[in-house]
Amino acid sequence: MKNYVKKILKIMKQLTIDDLIKSFKYWDKDNTGKISIDELKQSLTTIGDVLKDYEMEYLIKESDPTNSGAIDYIKYSKELMKKL
């Protein structure tokens, strides 16, 4: 898990918030400003990033703290950038 997080953080430090939002928006097929957990899983699989179940559970917990089943990616992107 730690290696995956380190890998993601290294990539994210190179991004701007606009870059991050654009990458999420690509997967927002219905243009709602949110992506479902299933869309998140699909997007990661599509780009070849296969996560173990516990890694995906951690990512979902972090990205959807209200357990709504969807990620408000603009809000989430802003929170992520604050942590970097």
What fraction of residues sit in β-strands?
Answer: 5-15%
Assign the structural class, choosing from mainly alpha, mainly beta, alpha/beta, alpha+beta, or little secondary structure.
Answer: mainly alpha
Tell me what the CATH architecture is: Orthogonal Bundle
CATH class: Mainly Alpha
- What would CATH call the homologous superfamily? EF-hand
What integer value in Å does the Rg equal? 12 Å
Unreliable stretches covering 5 or more consecutive residues:
none
Order of helices and strands: HHEHHEH
How can the largest sheet be summarized?
A: 2 strands, antiparallel
Summarize the structure in words:
This protein has 84 residues and is mainly alpha-helical. Helices cover 64% and strands 7% of the residues. Strands 1-2 form a two-stranded antiparallel sheet. The relative contact order is 0.18. The mean pLDDT is 80.
Write the layout of secondary structure elements.
Elements lengths: L1 H11 L4 H11 L6 E3 H10 L6 H11 L6 E3 H11 L1
Helix pairs in contact: 2-5
Short description:
The protein is mainly α and 84 residues long. Helices cover 64% and strands 7% of the residues.
List keywords for this structure.
single chain, 84 residues, mainly alpha, Recoverin, domain 1, two-stranded antiparallel sheet, 5 helices, 2 strands
